[in-house]
Amino acid sequence: MSYNIEGLRILVTGATSGIGLTTAEVLHQLGAQLILMGRNADALASLAERLGAETHALDITDETAVAEAIAGMGALDGLVNCAGISILDSVLEFKPADIDKIMAVNVTAAAHVAKLVAQNMVDHGRAGSIVNVSSQAGLVALRNHLGYCASKSALDSMTRVLCLELGEYGIRVNSVNPTVTLTPMAEMAWADPAKRGPMLAAIPLRRFAQPQEVAYPIAFLLSPAASMISGTALPIDGGFVAQ
Fold first, then answer.
1. Over the stretch 191-206, which tens digit does the pLDDT of each residue have?
2. How far is it, in rounded angstroms, from Cα 196 to Cα 33?
3. I need a labelling partner for 130 at 20 to 30 A (CA). Which of 9, 26, 27, 186 fits?
């Protein structure tokens, strides 16, 4: 078995920031040929130059734009479904419209991209790999995360259905479920010791994840070394959900 992903053509959504950006950088270092999607056209232009990537600036919920982009990509070997949003409110304060927004990106758009990429793989006879970037919020209840927890649980469930239906084509589908991951935005969001302390106390390793600690497991799941792994939700959480 090989960990080598050199030359594999991999689409990464949500590629201009956070886990998506770090994953794109890691996959580039490992020799993958990248196709990147995101909303920030300037950031994508920079990535196209720096990583030699094909890029598509679009709203992931725009079904027509996404379908047209994927139709012109040629054969794909992998997908990292990383585009996502979070709107946090307590159970007594959430707005139904906010849950609709979360679901539109984290579930509906992710399912649409997975469908189109899977069809691409089937059409080109590729036994590819799809990795959905979920969260520990899909595995446990978190306060003030009603819509987000629901969306990530749905994404994990979607992973299992995709695994079931796409397995006959040799396509593997898995989720990764990270804890708080210290992207620049998360660094600011968790800077308050009063907020940070209780979460760290719930993680047996007593620290948050670095983006690279999520990106490398994604690369593993994309690689031939994970050729018998499908339908899993992989916690990358320092033991958070083990308790």
1. 899 989 999 999 999 9
2. 37
3. 186
98-134 residue pLDDT tens: 999 999 999 999 999 999 999 999 999 999 999 999 9
| The one catalytic residue among 3, 95, 115, 148 | 148
Number of structural domains found in the chain:
1
Catalytic residue among 115, 152, 169, 195: 152
Strand 54-57 relative to strand 78-81: parallel, antiparallel, unpaired? unpaired
Catalytic residue status for 216: no
Question: In this predicted model, what pLDDT tens digit does every residue of 67-78 receive, in sequence order?
Answer: 999 999 999 999
Instruction: Give the residue numbers spanning the domain of 122.
Output: 9-229
- Cβ atoms of 173 and 166 within 8 Å: the answer is yes
Q: CATH code at 179?
A: 3.40.50.720
State yes or no: is 115 an active-site residue. no
Say whether pLDDT at 2 is over 90: no
